[in-house]
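On clarity, I found the account of how folds are encoded harder to follow than it need be. For illustration, here is how one protein appears when written out as sequence plus C-alpha cells.
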Amino acid sequence: MLDVQKAIKRLFDLVIALLLLVIFLPVWFVIGLLIKATSPGPVFFIQERPGLHGRLFKVFKFRTMRPGSERMVKGQEVMLDDDRITSIGKFLRRSKIDEVPQLLNVLKGEMSLVGPRPERVDSLADYTDEIWQRLNVRPGLTGLAQVSGNIYLPLEERYKLDVYYVKHFSLWLDFRIIMKTFGVVLKGEDKYINYKGTFNL
C-alpha cells in the first residue's frame, strides 16, 4: 500500500509541476526582468544540495540576494530584514515565489512537491543517524516544518518535524501540508509556529 501511495505521489508531482510551469511561464519572464532591473547578477540562484539518500543535485531558485551573499551559517536563517536581500527579493521570499523554479527539480525527479526542504551540503557533517532519515525521501518545495513555523523554529525542531514526516508519510498528510501551505503564504510563517511537538495540522 505504501508503494502505491509513493507511485501516486510521483504521478501527482509530475502532473502538477508540468501544469504550473506552463501556466506561469509568462510570470517567470516578468520576475526575471524585475530581478535584473533591481540588482546586478543572474536571474537564478543555483546551488548543490543533498537529495534522496544524500545524492547531490543542483537546486534552482530565483535569486533574492545580492551577488556574493551565498555564505550562510548553519542553523542561522535569512530573515526578511536581512540587508543582503534585494528589494524584489523580499517579495519573492515572503510569497515563496523564489522557490517556483524548483518545479524543474520536481520534473527531473530530484524533488517532490512535499518533503523536507533541501539543506546545504555542509549541514550533512552534523547529521546523526536520526536526522539522516530526512534524506530517505525526496526533498520538497514545502514540508511539515515549513507549515509549522519554519525559520521561527530552532533547527533541531525542524529536523524532528522532517523525520516525523518521513516516518508517517501518507498522501493524506501530503494533502494537509499542501493546504496549510496556502495559509502560510497568505499569512506568514510566524502565524503557524508549533512548539508543541504534536505535529497537528
